[in-house]
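Hi all, posting the design record for the shared folder.

TITLE: backbone redesign
STEP: 1 of 1
STRUCTURE INPUT:
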């Protein structure tokens, strides 16, 4: 069985705002042998795109660097505007083991080599986050990103915020990147039938772990300008600890409390099958459901080794 790593890099551009740069990133993602571009999602409101790549450790390490190179050459953060928090042209590079013979520790070493190469060849500094973090406070991506591109020059001069790779100054146009090994997460957004973004922000504050909500939920409220609606945007960093349906039901109840309702929801990028199966089991009230033994595709995967 092939040794596989998943990489989900986020870039501060969108097809809607800069189609040429988006297309250049897509072509680069497809150009490295040994890895496959599974998904590319773009959002003009956030002015951000998210790729999902899977391949051998060596291929993933190479494609992550090549994508960062393209983003560094083409994206000027001094002119970037979008709803999503960001600190760099290549904002974050997560590395996730996807086969039993690839360990988190191996992905941590990949993140370190990648950070060093990005600094040596592109002069873009980086923080290591999640399982790669060199300090406890750097595990949380939101803490690393706090201040964003505009506030990062001052932040890097603070005693505790020297980059893990690079000097205490951002790249003048590409900013700084976060790189790290982590477990799979689900990017899950819930859209509200209101144009009042303050409602989404209040709901996000209630449900996110950092302000006393669900431990494995990171959440923020945004305005979706193209649809004229507010959004609760989440990263479920452990979908078994905090299932999607738990967050959804809480948002639904809070939305009603504020006089609105859930319009729809969306998954950004790929998601583990179990995260969705857990939702089906909950809403169907399936009794004694056995995920592995009662889903045909799991048996087919077992047959294929």
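Okay, here is what came back for every position:
SEQUENCE:
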């Amino acid at each position: 069985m092939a040794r596989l790593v998943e990489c989900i890099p986020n870039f501060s551009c969108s097809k809607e705002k800069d189609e040429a740069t988006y297309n250049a990133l897509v072509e680069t993602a497809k150009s490295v042998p040994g890895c496959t571009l599974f998904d590319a999602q773009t959002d003009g409101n956030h002015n951000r795109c998210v790729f999902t790549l899977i391949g051998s450790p060596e291929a993933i390490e190479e494609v992550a660097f090549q994508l960062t190179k393209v983003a560094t050459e083409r994206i000027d953060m001094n002119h970037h505007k979008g709803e999503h928090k960001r600190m760099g042209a290549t904002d974050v590079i997560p590395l996730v083991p996807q086969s039993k013979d690839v360990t988190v520790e191996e992905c941590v070493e990949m993140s370190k080599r990648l950070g060093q190469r990005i600094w040596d060849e592109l002069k873009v500094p980086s923080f290591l986050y999640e399982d790669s973090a060199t300090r406890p406070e750097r595990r949380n991506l939101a803490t690393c990103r706090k201040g964003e591109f505009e506030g990062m020059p001052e932040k890097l001069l603070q005693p505790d915020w020297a980059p893990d790779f690079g000097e205490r100054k951002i790249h003048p146009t590409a900013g700084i990147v976060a790189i790290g090994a982590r477990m799979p997460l689900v990017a899950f957004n819930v859209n509200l039938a209101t144009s009042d973004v303050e409602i989404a922000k209040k709901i996000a504050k209630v449900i996110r772990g950092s302000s006393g909500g669900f431990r494995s939920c990171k959440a923020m409220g945004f305005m979706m300008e193209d649809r004229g609606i507010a959004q609760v945007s989440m990263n479920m960093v452990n979908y078994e600890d905090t299932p999607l349906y738990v967050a959804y039901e809480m948002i639904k109840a809070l939305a009603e409390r504020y006089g609105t309702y859930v319009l729809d929801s969306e998954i950004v990028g790929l998601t583990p099958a179990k995260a969705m199966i857990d939702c089906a089991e909950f809403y169907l009230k399936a009794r004694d459901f056995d995920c592995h033994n009662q889903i045909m595709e799991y048996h087919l995967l077992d047959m294929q080794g």
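COMMENT: Residues 104-122 form the longest helix (19 residues).
Let me know if anyone wants the other runs.
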